[in-house]
């Protein structure tokens, strides 16, 4: 079964626009779980433009499903993760000022750094997932440095889906098979939505988890968050 983790960054962005506590990020996370979400994902950035350090600590105390913290592994980020002790941490190669993730890690070029970070985060009790492109060489390297999972960067799939879905998903199928062959769990995320998710899931039966934020929050503006989560869960069945 593929689990749905809801990224709630955009909810924090909306709250921060007014400098108050509407919408309430923690209540929204709890409601997502109540409506069937099987995980909550956050991506705290150094400028705290959406999720803040305070949010991370508050969420760590109330999330009852899987709490996943993603981000670039600076020392501040590592310290925060070890304080919050999430079930999973997803390492992304984003620069501090990046608008959003735009590529996976070159694990081979950052082997020693990522090996040390992975070992440190595991001592804090977190499962470690490395954000990668669908490249078997990078997936092999992630296994070699001690990661538990990889998260496939799916924007290239989403961009090509309408033109040729079979061609779009082919590298991801190969990557998923390779991940399992080298003993890694498999996550995926970025630009997955109600239009392209079911096809992706059906092509990758080994998929453990998807993390989706922007599309879910955008759909919820029209459908409501309870209905939106139900529709995404249906795509994964």
Look at the helices and sheets and give the structural class: alpha/beta
Rounded to the nearest angstrom, the radius of gyration is 17 Å
- Main sheet record: 8 strands, parallel, barrel
Physical arrangement of strands within the biggest beta sheet = 1-2-3-4-5-6-7-8
What is the count of β-strands?
8
Averaged pLDDT: 96
**Helical residue percent band:** 40-55%
SSE pattern, N- to C-terminal: EHHEHEHEHEHEHHEHEHH
* Beta-strand residue percentage: 15-25%
The geometry reads as globular
Detail the poorly predicted runs.
none
The total of helices stands at 11
Instruction: Give the termini distance in whole angstroms.
Output: 8 Å
Question: Brief overview, please?
Answer:
The chain is an alpha/beta fold. The protein is built from 11 helices and 8 strands.
Walkthrough of the structure:
With about 240 residues, this protein is of the alpha/beta class. About 45% of the residues lie in helices and about 15% in strands. It is built from 11 helices and 8 strands. The protein has an 8-stranded parallel beta barrel, surrounded by 6 helices. Strand 7 (about 185-190), helix 9 (about 195-205) and strand 8 form a beta-alpha-beta unit. Helix 10 (about 215-225) crosses helix 11. It starts with a strand and ends with a helix. The mean pLDDT is about 95.
Tag the structure with descriptive keywords.
237 residues; 11 helices; 8 strands; 16% strand; globular
